[in-house]
Amino acid sequence: MTHNTDRNFSLFERARAVIPGGVNSPVRAFKAVGGTPRFIGRAQGAYMWDANGTRYIDYIGSWGPMILGHGHPAVLEAVQKAAVDGLSFGAPTEREVELAEAILELMPSMDMVRLVSSGTEAGMSAIRLARGATGRSKILKFEGCYHGHADALLVKAGSGLATFGNATSAGVPPEVVQHTLVLEYNNVVQLEEAFALHGRDLACLMMEPIAGNMNFVRASTEFTRRCRELCTEYGALLVYDEVMTGFRVALGGAQSVYAQQIPGFAPDITVMGKVIGGGMPLAAFGGRREVMEQLAPLGAVYQAGTLSGNPVATACGLATLHEIRKPGFYEALASSTRALVSGLEAAAADEGVPFCADSEGGMFGFFLLPELPQNYAEVMRTDGQRFNRLFHGLLERGVYLAPALYEAGFVSAAHTQDDIAATVAAAREVFKTL
C-alpha cells in the first residue's frame, strides 16, 4: 500500500502537526521499532481493525485492561446504562461503593481503598501516603520497574548504594529525586545492604511483582520474601504495584500467587489499575485501615480527584470483575496464554532462534535470549534489531504485539485456539527470516 492510500500514514502526518510526536503516549509512536503506527478504528473480541480496515489479532489489549476481549456484551450494556444516567456528578455514588467492596473482597491485604483515574495518580498518591504515614522522606524502587510518570519515580540507578538516583526525564530537578534510591531488581544482597544503610529513613519500598516494562521479569520468591521482611524490620511500608498484574495474573493478583509460596505474605499498600476499569480510566490504591485513614478527609495526607470514582468507569469495572469471577475463568485464560508461549518457544527452537518466554495468568513476555533475564541489565542484552524485524513480520501477518522490546503482552478470554495457532504459524514464518 502506497502512502497515498495508507490512511495510517496520512493520519500520522496530521497528528504530528497538532500532537507532540503524533501520539498521546510515547510508545504508540513506533519510534522504537520504526514504521508508521496503526490508527485503530474499531475492535471486537480478540481483534482490532486499523484505519485501512486491516484486521489484527490483538495482544496489547489496551495494555492489559481488556481481559474479556473488546466489546464484551455485559460490559457494554453496563456502560451504556450508566452513561444514560449521567457521565459525572462530582458527588458520591452507590456504584463506587460497590466497586470498592468488590476489590476489597478479592484482595484481603486491603481494608480500605481509594479510587482514582490513572495508574500514575494511584502510584504518586501511594507514595505520598507512605511518607505521611511513616513521617519519612526516602523511597526505594528498582531499575526497570515503572510506576507511572510522577517526578519522583522517573529515576535511574545512581552510582552506588550510598547515592540516590538520577532523573531520567528533562524537567525533573535533581532535588526532586534526591530521596529516591534505585536498586537492581532481584538482587537480595544489594537490597540488604541498602536497608542497612538507609532502612530507618525509608518511607516505602515500591515494587512490581512482575516487571511488565522489562517485558516480563518476575520477582524471585526469595527476593519478595526479603522485601517483606526488611520492610517489617525497618518500619518501611511495602507498596505493591499491581496496576499491570492485578486481576490479570490471578483473581487475587500477583500477591495471591506469592502468598502461596510465602506464608502470610501481604503488602502494606497495593496500587491497582487497568483491569479494575475494564478499559476505562480508573485506578485505585488501598491498604491496611490504619494507613488508609491517614488520607484526607480523615487524616493529614491530601489527595483528591474531580473524576475519581467516575460513574461510567465504575460500571465498566464492576461488570468486568463480575465476569472474571466466574468459575474456570482464570484456568482457561492461563491455558490459552501457556499455549501461546509454548507454541512460540517451539517455533523458535525449530528455526534455531534464541528465544525464551514466561507467563502468569493472562500476562506473558518473551526475549530473544537463551534464558530468562532477572533484571534490567540482563534484559538489555536482547537483540533489539532482531526484535524489530520480528515485530514488523508479525504485524504484516496480522498479529499485533507491543511495539517495544520491553513491554509485556496480554491474552484475553476472547482469544480462541485458532487465534493462538494462527499467531504461532505467523511467528514460525518470521523466525525463518531471522
UniProtKB/TrEMBL annotation:
Keyword Lyase on entry: no
Native source species: Simplicispira hankyongi
Gene Ontology CC entries for this record: cytoplasm
Gene Ontology molecular function: any one: glutamate-1-semialdehyde 2,1-aminomutase activity
Protein name, UniProt field: Glutamate-1-semialdehyde 2,1-aminomutase
Pathway this chain belongs to: Porphyrin-containing compound metabolism; protoporphyrin-IX biosynthesis; 5-aminolevulinate from L-glutamyl-tRNA(Glu): step 2/2
One GO term (biological process): protoporphyrinogen IX biosynthetic process
Catalytic activity, reaction form: (S)-4-amino-5-oxopentanoate = 5-aminolevulinate
Main localisation: cytoplasm
Modified residues (N6-(pyridoxal phosphate)lysine): K274
